[in-house]
Amino acid sequence: MLKSYVEFKSSLFPPCSENPEEWEGAIWGRALAQFLDEKLRQLGLPAAGIHAEDWGYCVNFEAPFHDDIWLGCGRYEEYENGYLVMIEPKNPFIKKWFKADIDLTEQLMQLTVALAQILDNEPQIHDVKWWTAAEFEKP
User: Fold this and answer.
1) Is CB count within 10 Å lower at the N or C end of the chain?
2) Where is 119: in which H helix or E strand?
3) According to the model, what pLDDT value does residue 99 have?
4) Domains, the chain, ranges and CATH?
5) Residue 27's Cα: distance from chain center in Å?
6) Residue 31 in 3-state DSSP?
7) Cβ distance 47 to 60 under 8 Å?
8) Nearest partner of 101 among 109, 114, 92, 110, judged by Cα
9) Sequence-ordered strand ranges (E) for the chain
């Protein structure tokens, strides 16, 4: 089973300061998403920019990656300086009606390996822990 959640601690990524009235300063993850977008491109992955959500930021991808693949980046409130990145989709198989299923295992593994390399190579990122969806989501 793929590990699709990774938590870590770092002081590298301050909270988003854009539109503080709109977000009340509560949305974190912009600096992290920008960092990952840049580092993934440097490693040759097809990162295609970021966009905001109400819980954090997404890193988008373009072809040859499937359009269902993205990274979610946000604050992990278990720790004062905690962050969480989730790889989507969690299930590497996309079921299609009347068509062959799509297997994203290779693309998701490529993304996971690159993400692990980025986190491991940054000295200001520490206490990295990977989770499967089942491990992370269990009560």
Assistant:
1) C
2) helix 105-121
3) 80
4) 3-137 (3.30.310)
5) 15
6) helix
7) yes
8) 92
9) 3-10, 47-52, 57-61, 70-75, 82-88, 93-94, 102-103, 125-132
* Weakly modelled stretches of the chain, pLDDT under 50: none
> How many CB atoms within 10 Å of residue 91?
13
| Alpha-carbon 40 to chain mean position | 11
Max CA distance (Å), the chain: 49
Sign of CA dihedral 77, 81, 87, 91: negative
How open is the CA angle 45-79-35, to the nearest 5 degrees?
Answer: 25
Q: Are 73 and 62 in contact (CB under 8 A)?
A: no
Distances (CA, A) of 33 to 19, 68, 135: 17, 17, 24
- Tell me the pTM: 0.89
Question: Roughly how many angstroms between the first and final C-alpha of the chain, as a whole number?
Answer: 19
Contact 11, 81 (CB under 8 A): yes
